[in-house]
Write a structure and sequence with these properties.
- This protein is α/β, with parallel strands linked by helices.
- It is built from seven helices and eleven strands.
- A seven-stranded mixed beta sheet has the order 6-7-8-3-9-10-11, with helices on both faces. It has a four-stranded antiparallel beta sheet with strand order 2-1-4-5, covered by helices on one side.
- Helix 3 runs parallel beside helix 5, helix 4 crosses helix 5 and helix 5 packs parallel to helix 6.
Length: 244
């Protein structure tokens, strides 16, 4: 009998409220869900629904207002910023829509950077291997402004994987790419995810990308439901949802 995968993420009644000039604004209503190790999960929904806010909380980039988040068994809600940063360095990779490469470093140096910060052995060798995996071994000496958008995102993906994170977060990873480059980045993301046995959670407006994930969580006005991948879609074309 195969062992049931452990949860990589557990959330319990998490909320996010911010102060505004007009008073408190609740961005996330109480949310509870689990993500198993090695699962692929898409968070979808309209702009302003709270998707990126939720992703930032799960990655430890921001603090919950109330509730609990456990990442690989560690309580993010119990940590200060320094402790969360240490946990991110040990367990998390992050891919941004805007690539977020260091402009003064070459492609190879950008990929090496997290490995150097972690103190891993042979960061240059690891980076060269990943450059080859993303098909950019001939571009390692080029700077971000010398690379196309698709090439920059492939460098960003290689950088995210170099520390072999247990969980990878991606915020609109194909949002700034044309269709051809977007599809190439999608395939690369899932291929590397599978080979590294990494848990993947991504935010996307791209239904094609979301459909490649095992689960789809739908944000709407700060509330979360789950879209069933197996259930047929109603004739009105709206996704069939269930509360979680």
């Amino acid at each position: 009998m195969s062992k049931t995968p452990e949860n990589m993420i557990t959330t319990k009644n998490i909320t996010k409220t911010v102060s505004t000039s007009e008073g408190p604004l609740t961005i996330l209503q109480p949310i509870s869900f689990d993500v198993k190790a090695s699962e692929t999960v898409a968070i979808v929904g309209a702009s302003g629904s709270g998707k990126s806010t939720l992703l930032g909380l799960l990655a430890g980039l921001d603090e919950v207002s109330t509730g609990e988040i456990f990442l690989d068994g560690k309580g993010l809600h119990q940590m200060d910023e320094e402790q969360r940063a240490q946990l991110r360095g040990e367990k998390v990779g992050f891919i941004f829509q805007s690539f977020m490469l260091v402009q003064s470093l070459t492609a190879l140096e950008n990929i090496m950077l997290p490995a150097e910060i972690r103190g891993l052995d042979n960061p240059k060798k690891l980076a060269e291997e990943l450059l080859a995996k993303v098909g950019l071994e001939h571009r390692g000496g080029h700077y971000p402004n010398q690379l196309s958008g698709g090439e920059q995102q492939r460098v960003a993906i290689a950088r995210a994987f170099i520390t072999q994170p247990k969980i990878l977060f991606a915020d609109e990873p194909t949002g700034n790419l044309d269709a051809a480059n977007g599809e190439r980045v999608e395939n690369l993301l899932f291929d590397l995810n599978k080979s590294a046995d990494t848990t993947l959670i991504l935010v996307t407006h791209d239904n094609q990308l979301a459909d490649k994930c095992e689960r789809q969580l739908v944000m709407q006005a700060g509330e979360l439901t789950e879209r069933s991948n197996d259930a047929p879609r109603p004739s009105n074309g709206k996704p069939q949802l269930k509360a979680i």
